[in-house]
Amino acid sequence: MIIEVLKSKIHRVKVTQAELNYVGSITIDADLIDAANIIPNEKVQIVNNNNGARFETYVIKGERGSGIVCLNGAAARLAQVGDIVIIISYASMEMEEARNFEPVLVFPDTDNKLIK
What we know:
It is found in: Cytoplasm. By secondary structure, this protein is mainly beta. It has two helices and eight strands; from the N terminus they run E-E-E-H-E-E-E-E-H-E.
């Protein structure tokens, strides 16, 4: 049996931009996606702590060290600059593999920077 499990999570980052007139996606600082083991174009779920919105989109790599978390296209309607979001990716795997799998959890600071 194949199940879907948490693969990666960037916990409580601040939305820094919202660009409605864009094709779509979420742009995330390259430092954050690398730390979370997320790759460009990977499907992610976004959970907005401020308004409860939950939606899916794909990742675009942002400028390294910038702290950028920018919702693009229609997703820009689901959060405002300053909202706190959680970015989640999932993986499909066999039940036995899932029992021993350890997800990558990233807890950035209030400026969306990695805590060293």
